[in-house]
Amino acid sequence: MGDTITQIGRYEISRQLVDTALASVYDAFDPVERKPVAIRVPRTTHHGTGELSLRLRHPGLMNVLSYGQNQGETFLVMEPFQGTPLDSHIQARKMEPGEVLGLLRQLASVLDYAHAHGSIHGSLHPSSILLNDRGEVKVLDLGATDIAGRNASAEQLLRAVHFLSPECIRDQPMDGRSDQFSLAVLAHRMLTGEMPFPWKPLGAMFCIAYQQL
C-alpha cells in the first residue's frame, strides 16, 4: 500500500500519517459511524493484531477499536490523533530539558504499562512516536513480533538502526530492558541534538551489538 491509497475496507483515507518499518498509519474517516479514525496496516500479516491489541488501553497509545482484513491484508482501526512523528520535531536541534523530561515521563509510562501486560516495543525510535502541539505523545508499533517488516524499505529500516538494543541487533530474545535501552538513546538525542553512536548505520550497529557501551 502506498501514499496514494484512498480507501481501506469501508474507511476513506485522507493522508498517510506515518510510515515505519513495521506499519503504515493513515488518517481516515468512517462513513458508517460518521467519525474520524486512524487505520494501521502492518507490514506482516500477524503483527499487531488479535486480543492483545484490543486489550491495551493507555493515554499514550492510539487505542485499537477493531480490526479486519482488506484484500488479504490485516488492518487495525484506531482512535484518531492529531500529531506528527517525533523525528520531525527533533531534526537538527536539541530540546529544552523540561520539554524532554515531560516526553520521557509519558514514554516511560507507556512502556511500563506495556511491559506489565506482557508486551514490548522492540524498536522504539522517533518515527514510531507521534507528538501533538500540546506536548502529548502516542506510541506506535507496540507489541512487535517482527522487528523489521518483511516489506519495509531500506530507508524505513535505517531510521530505527541507531535506537535498537544489542539483543535486537543480535537477534536474541528481548524484554523490557530492550525498550529501556532505546528510550535512553532517544533521551540522549533529544537533550544533546546528537546520537550517542554517531557513525553510519553499519558502524552504529556493530558498536551497539559488539562493543562495551
Describe the structure concisely for a colleague.
The protein has 213 residues and is of the alpha+beta class. The chain is built from seven helices and nine strands.
Structural class: alpha+beta
Overall shape: it is globular
Uncertain stretches = 46-52, 144-152
- Number of E-type strands: 9
Strand content: 15-25%
* Side-by-side strand order of the widest sheet: 1-2-3-4-6-5
Percent helix among the residues?
Answer: 25-40%
What is the terminal-to-terminal distance?
39 Å
Mean pLDDT across all amino acids: 83
Order of helices and strands: EEEEHEEEHHEEHHHH
- Our Rg estimate from Cα atoms comes to 17 Å
Characterize the main sheet. Answer: 6 strands, antiparallel
Query: Please, how many helices?
Result: 7
Quaternary structure classification: single chain
Can you lay out the helices and strands and say which pair or pack?
Layout: E1 7-8, E2 11-19, E3 23-30, E4 35-42, H1 51-55, E5 64-70, E6 73-78, E7 84-85, H2 87-90, H3 97-116, E8 129-131, E9 137-139, H4 154-161, H5 166-169, H6 176-192, H7 201-210
Antiparallel strand pairs: 1-2, 2-3, 3-4, 4-6, 5-6, 7-8, 8-9
Description:
With 213 residues, the protein is α+β, with helices and mostly antiparallel strands. The chain has seven helices and nine strands; from the N terminus they run ββββαβββααββαααα. The strands form two sheets. A six-stranded antiparallel beta sheet has the order 1-2-3-4-6-5. α3 runs antiparallel to α6 (176-192). The longest helix is centred in the middle third of the chain and has 20 residues, at 97-116. The radius of gyration is 17 Å and the shape is globular. The N and C termini lie far apart (39 Å). The model is unreliable at 46-52 and 144-152 (pLDDT under 50).
